[in-house]
Amino acid sequence: MLSRLSPFGLNGKRRFADLTEKEILALAITSEEEDGQIYAAYAAKLRTEYPASAAVFDGMAEEENEHRRVLIDMYKKRFGDFIVPIRREYVADFYTRKPVWLVENLPIETIRQEAADMERKAYGFYLAAAARSTDADTRKLLGDLAAAEAGHEKAADSLAQEHLTKESRGEEDVASRRQFILTWVQPGLAGLMDGSVSTLAPIFATAFATQNTWTTFLVGLSASIGAGISMGFTEAAHDDGKLSGRGAPWKRGLASGVMTALGGLGHALPYLIPSFWTATAIALVVVFIELWAIVWIQNKYMETPFLRATFQVVLGGALVLAAGILIGGA
User: Fold this and answer.
1) Which domains, ranges and CATH numbers included, belong to the chain?
2) Could you give the CA distance from residue 3 to residue 174 in angstroms, rounded to a whole number?
3) Are 271 and 257 in contact (CB under 8 A)?
4) How many whole angstroms separate alpha carbon 58 and alpha carbon 43?
5) Who has the most CB within 10 Å: 22, 64, 138, 266?
6) What is the pTM of this model?
7) 125: part of which helix (H) or strand (E)?
């Protein structure tokens, strides 16, 4: 838990072992204050879509604020009204908090994991620090802080039991799955469909017109990468996700762009094989796999009836493939 640092500090920072009891108590106060603000930020993010979880974090924020008030009373009693302005970042070997609460559209499971990690780090640090202390008063102080963090974890459990009923947790899981589909699955599926189907005509037209595998591969490579870049930028630029709730534009653009490129590259890569008919046969098998993958995704995530998805995808792909072969062979 504690870094083995030089007694002289690192980059002008103080070591935790070099802090006085007054400074340790001041550090505990600012840490509790910051944690309370983080929990309040999580509650604000979750309030619209996950009201039950927001209530949990509201309660945890209040718990942190209550511990801060108790610590301030203790500090004033021992050291007076002026609280030393010391924060986590001023102590070289003190745990830090990742600013994940600043991320827009943060998944609810990530928030829950980060909150649990916050409690574990605080508890573990104070417990280890108390075990190292040889001063009785400091040891007691650090032990009290460790007990307080353990109390936070128990409070979080009781709050979760109070607010996160089976029904509300089920509703939040549905909302979380819906967000995953809107942010990743839907743009990725659109990209895969565009990349797989739209590149069929140029790739197979080139293949049958030239019967040159290297030329066909270059056409397929350029078409796939170009389509991936175009689809990625289009998805990211046309909707910032704030009104639609579809998630961060860079995530949707990444999913759409990557899947578009992969959809085209799947049946372009076989043309690295010098034998034209062998490459074409493998490419046709890959096309079949791609189309059935699209059908599976539509059925599993978009709840499209299997037969309807099969008819739409296979018929559309077959028409584009036939057009490419006919044009190339003309």
Assistant:
1) 16-164 (1.20.1260.10), 175-329 (no CATH)
2) 42
3) no
4) 6
5) 64
6) 0.55
7) helix 108-132
